[in-house]
């Protein structure tokens, strides 16, 4: 089954169970300052769970575009290292707003996996929250799950929350066993971190609303929120053990490999770039522009990371913006907006590439020299700060390079340099204010001194602050 066929089969299945098909919402959550990006299908329904918004349906299904590159759910560091994480992915979901609860949610999921997708039951592994005896009883008595493929886990694994505040509750998850040839152990075991047992579907039983002070109030009516990663279930259905080998990624990676002239299709940097072109294009599509703060800075960081991986593969000149075309070929049918905004997206990426190209090479040289003379295995705060301040290397980019070389970074030392920079900035601003006042300049006069220093991201950031 192709990714598109799986998406359609899922939505059609839940429609047949009385769910309203709802379009994906934007990656920028509407009116929700608590959240950086839409990180799950439930985000657009948050107020339905809280009971403050009523819709004319109580069951919904969607395929939601998600980004997990900051905030509570951040997978940026996982990309390139696991078979299952992306910064951008699609989450298939079914939702009940005070309609059905645990029993139906579990039955629907099991029916879809074993009867529609026809997955063998012995390949599936189930987890529940260790306090949730109700779900456990449903799995044993209704579904008749094999007890040897079942784990009870604590809050860390089986309590889901959208963010630090908002709807949350215990969950039950379904894993797929990719087989002995893949390293890794079952959920809850010490070897769990491998890629053998892949979590495919999370069924969240929404029962609470967490407030800022950490207290949890019961929701007006218990609800259901589920999420299944399209790319993960596609890997299962297409008999590949890595998300980056599914149809959509395979085609995209071939397109990219062709442009940047890389032979090995399993190259790690190639996968990172394929991941990043998706998140960057969709973020721009949803109105985020690269910049120095908040969402804009997350986007800039992802773009720069992609460019650095291109540089690592020996790319000369700008390339990242050219990949948008390859993405449109893969995803333009599912997301026609992508095709409409293709030129804005690639122009935005090109501008960023040109800006970063000026400092990337130099910064890399400095870093390589530093690493060559390193005593110990930690890159010092001063180096991190210099790269950040003068060469526009976001801290996570340098950390990414360090990790590839088996090194760590001195984040505390970086923070000290940052504080020192801010203090100097404040003093200087004070001096300028005093100076302007002494000259009796009128208030409209704008100080442009910092902006005239070339290519320094942090300088602009100081101005913003
Ligand atoms: P993992 O433990 O593998 O990081 P998760 O527990 O963080 O996943 P959930 O928050 O439960 O994931 O999200 C629901 C589903 O969304 C997951 O079961 C998975 O199928 C999918 N998913 C989550 N994160 C990613 C990601 N970064 N890339 C692709 N799919 C993802
Ligand atoms: Mg995760
Ligand atoms: Mg998990
Ligand atoms: Mg999960």
Automatic annotation (TrEMBL):
Keywords of the record: Ligase
> What are the recorded GO MF terms, alphabetically?
alanine-tRNA ligase activity
Write the Enzyme Commission number(s) for this entry.
Answer: 6.1.1.7
Designated name of the protein: Alanine--tRNA ligase
- Give the species this sequence originates from: Aliikangiella maris
């Amino acid at each position: 089954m192709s990714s598109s066929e799986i998406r359609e089969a899922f939505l059609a299945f839940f429609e047949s169970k009385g769910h309203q098909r709802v379009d994906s919402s934007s990656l920028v959550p509407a009116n929700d300052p608590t959240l950086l990006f839409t990180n799950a299908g439930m985000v657009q329904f948050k107020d339905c769970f809280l009971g403050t918004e009523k819709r004319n349906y109580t069951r919904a299904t969607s395929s939601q575009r998600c980004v997990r590159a900051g905030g509570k759910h951040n997978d940026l560091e996982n990309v390139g290292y696991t078979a299952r994480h992306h910064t951008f992915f699609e989450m298939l979901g079914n939702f009940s707003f005070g309609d059905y609860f645990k029993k139906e949610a579990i039955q629907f999921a099991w029916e879809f996996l074993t009867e529609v997708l026809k997955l063998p039951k012995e390949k599936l592994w189930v987890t529940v929250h260790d306090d949730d005896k109700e779900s456990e009883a449903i799995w044993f008595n209704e579904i008749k799950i094999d007890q040897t493929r079942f784990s009870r886990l604590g809050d860390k694994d089986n309590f889901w929350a959208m963010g630090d505040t908002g709807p949350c509750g215990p969950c039950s998850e379904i894993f797929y066993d990719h087989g002995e040839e893949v390293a890794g152990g079952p959920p809850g075991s010490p070897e769990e971190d491998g890629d053998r047992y892949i979590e495919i579907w999370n069924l969240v039983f929404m029962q609470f609303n967490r407030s800022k002070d950490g207290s949890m109030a019961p929701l007006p009516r218990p609800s259901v929120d589920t999420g299944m990663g399209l790319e993960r279930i596609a890997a299962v259905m297409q008999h590949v053990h890595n998300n980056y080998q599914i149809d959509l990624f395979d085609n995209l990676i071939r397109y990219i490999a062709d442009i940047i002239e890389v032979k090995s299709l399993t190259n790690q940097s190639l996968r990172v770039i394929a991941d990043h072109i998706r998140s960057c294009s969709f973020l721009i599509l949803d109105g985020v522009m690269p910049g120095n703060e908040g969402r804009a800075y997350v986007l800039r960081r992802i773009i720069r990371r992609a460019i650095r991986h291109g540089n690592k593969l020996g790319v000369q000149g700008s390339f990242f913006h050219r990949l948008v075309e390859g993405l449109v070929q893969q995803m333009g049918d599912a997301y026609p907006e992508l095709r409409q905004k293709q030129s804005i997206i690639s122009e935005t990426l090109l501008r960023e590439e040109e800006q970063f190209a000026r400092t990337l090479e130099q910064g890399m040289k400095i870093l390589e020299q530093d690493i060559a003379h390193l005593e110990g295995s930690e890159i010092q705060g001063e180096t991190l700060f210099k790269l950040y301040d003068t060469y526009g290397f976001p801290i996570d980019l340098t950390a990414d390079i360090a990790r590839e070389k088996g090194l760590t970074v001195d984040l505390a030392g970086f923070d000290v340099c940052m504080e020192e920079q801010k203090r100097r900035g404040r003093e200087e601003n004070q001096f300028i204010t005093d100076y302007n006042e002494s000259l009796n300049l009128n208030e409209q006069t704008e100080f442009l001194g910092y902006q005239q220093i070339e290519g320094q991201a942090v300088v602009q950031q100081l101005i913003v602050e």
